[in-house]
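ASSEMBLY PREDICTION REQUEST
Request ID: AP-0331
Submitted by: J.K., bench scientist
Number of chains: three
Total residues: 609
Priority: normal
Notes: Please return the full assembly, not individual chains.
Input sequences:
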Amino acid sequence: MNWMEYVNAFWVGGAICAICQVFIDRTKLTPARILVSLVVLGVALQALGLYQPVVDYAGAGATIPLLGFGYSLAKGVAKAVAETGLLGAFTGGVTGAAGGIAAAIVFGCLFALIARPKSRS
Amino acid sequence: MKLDKQSYQRLLEQKSPPSPLPLDCLKAFLFGGAICTVGETVSNFWQWRGLETTDAAAATSITMVFLGALLTCLHLYEKMAKHAGAGTIVPITGFANSIVSPAMEFKSEGLVLGVGAKLFVIAGPVLTYGISASVIYGLILVLLGGGGGA
Amino acid sequence: MIERIGQRTLHLTSRPYLMAHAAAVGKKEGEGPLGAYFDFVTEDDRMKQKSWELAESALQKTAINLALHKAGLQRGELDVILAGDLLNQCTGSFLASVDSDTPYLGQYGACSTMAQGLALGGCLVEGGAARRLLAAASSHFCSAERQYRFPLAYGGQRAPTAQWTATAAGAAVLGARGTGRIRLTHVLFGKMVELGVKDANNMGAAMAPAAYDTLSTLLADLGAQPTDFDCIVTGDLGHVGADLLLTLLRTDGIDLSPVYSDCGSLLFGDEQDAHAGASGCGCSAAVLCGPLLRDMQAGKIRRLVFAGTGAMMSPTSVQQGQPIAGICHAVVIERSDA
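STATUS: Completed
Returned structure:
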């Protein structure tokens, strides 16, 4: 077992989160805007070929943060365009991220049916 | 005293305590890093079960979304997030939390206009702009002649 | 008769009676430093209801019924109910009074609603439009979160300047005749003051200039010093806003600190993780109708200025980039011996 891969996932993932925390605390950017920026940035970085090396180095440390969501959208598009051209430009992104999106919707509905919100203290 | 906006702005910045940045960042780093390490473990598990890289990545996303949703439903995610900040917002588990929490909250307005419509009230923009960006990237690839097939 | 004094202060010459008062609060509020002063503390913030809006209305209804009971009145004996809360269309309040069979006037003054209701109610009683009326206000952490911020289970982080919406309700009965000793003597309706604060997580800062305007006008109109009163309380400026108000008044040479308190700073203890303090209509309503009026009954406070402060904003106005204005209505309450 290669322990370095866990160390790399930990520090890269943690660093991405810590940088975002600086933006939350010190700018007027709301978390929603930061998340949107991260996804779009993930698409852009992968389009420029800059994100694949990060994924190769850090594994889940790069794919689990929302940048990775953008990465899988972009990767899916590139693959689909290579296969089907123009049609792929439309189908590729969602295909690449389909697992996460469908899971979020289904588990969202499912857990909403069993759980209910609780007051905080 | 006649108050004007500029001098009041200066006064209130003086009197409003800022967020404790180093501590917030440290906690975001530790929580975010820990979630990603769990993700790495899950990913290795799926690869060990024989899934190839792309499929293992999708299975990992689904598993992490499930974990985020489960912790939300057990009211544990909000308790972690109070400390973790970006450390729990930025990972994909936070994406799951942002979908499950409004679904739970707006159940009282019914299954269609409550759960169904409000599911994406926070996560919607992420999908809107993420998918749009991917389509634009795809169109650029097509224009650059990267398209094969039809 | 209503006499106008100075710029804007109204003197209610026959001094309407505050016949009875009651406060009902949530679990966290009951665990706070003022817990023992409230008439009703719920164990379950849901109040056995199926939605948070219904829970809030049940809490307000509890406070109203307790106040009526203490005044020895039935609901039908009121000439009007003035009630408000933070929710769209005052949902908590109309649901609480829908079966009251009493004329109802919905109030919206954000967190200044209790002061607005009392001030308006005082004028209605003084002017003969009502013999007995009830003013009430409520807020609920959970119903306010889902309307103004995020779902409860969403993992967000609160800023150090953010205030915690109180789960609380207060109700007071005003009457032209009575046997009690607590009476309303002056009211002052506040102006909106907007100084460009846009941060919805720093509402104390948005409201402090309005409190400064109202309190300095009141003191000037009455020719009074802060120490002429036993206690001057603002609605819910919280720690940040209260500090700003004291600083603003100090630049005019007015030292409010010996008699000053803020309901938002009083409701929760430091260990309760409420950041800059409490907020919400119910906060000032419950602190007034609980501890403050009880202290007046006991003779510990004889002359009180209750200055409810509100932040004039909505999720829509904030999203459209509009600044948050503050408002502050004040009432002077006195205990007469004899």
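REVIEWER COMMENTS: The first helix of chain B runs from residue 5 to 15.
SIGN-OFF: pending second reviewer
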